[in-house]
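Q: Could you predict the 3D structure of Ubiquinone biosynthesis O-methyltransferase?
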Amino acid sequence: MNADPSELQKFADMAHRWWDPESEFRPLHEINPLRLDWIDSLCPLNGQTVLDIGCGGGLLSEGMAERGARVTGIDLGEKALGVARLHLHESGLDIDYRLVSAEALAQEQPGQFDVVTCLEMLEHVPDPASIIRACATLVKPGGHVFFSTINRNPKAYLLSVIGAEYLLRMLPKGTHDYAKFIKPSELARHCRSSGLDIAHLTGLTYNPLTQVYSLCQDTDVNYLMHARRHV
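A: Sure. Here are the predicted structure tokens for Ubiquinone biosynthesis O-methyltransferase:
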């Protein structure tokens, strides 16, 4: 199984707070509109069949469903999926949440999705290349795949680990392992070797003075990548 038990436990312990915008998941709540708008601008979600890999408590999944997508969300965290399913009673949305790995679903449903998203997940798994290959298998020829993760360099360590976890305390200590951060060049190489063409790359920055996130050209720390599967 391409999952770190300690990572699964870490998110299981926090799962009940997933939909609390003032909890450890506050950064996800604040960047979610930016992520949704970016994805929707590159591939209008209305009517698309979408797979959200590493969906957690369903924040992105619900956002895409609200925009008219038919969403399947998968995760290996049972508690997070339980929270996601429970929140559907509040939102009234129709999302298929499944406890299954990306690799297993790729064998079961190859080429079945118009769009595949895998955001804020690659830096938490032992073998990100395996996830990327699964994404390429799951998406239809010509389909869209969206990733987001954290760059690996001294600036990213300073801001994402020291700054966010220890100084600003935006995230619990130990949320990120610097060794698992992924350079854009590495992610692009994994994509190309899996049959995906890189279409767009954009950065995500946080201003601690204004406490505002924004999309920009600076990919030094957080970044998002859009790829297309070969036709």
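Q: Anything worth pointing out?
A: The helical segments are 5-14, 26-42, 59-66, 78-91, 102-108, 128-138, 154-167, 184-193.
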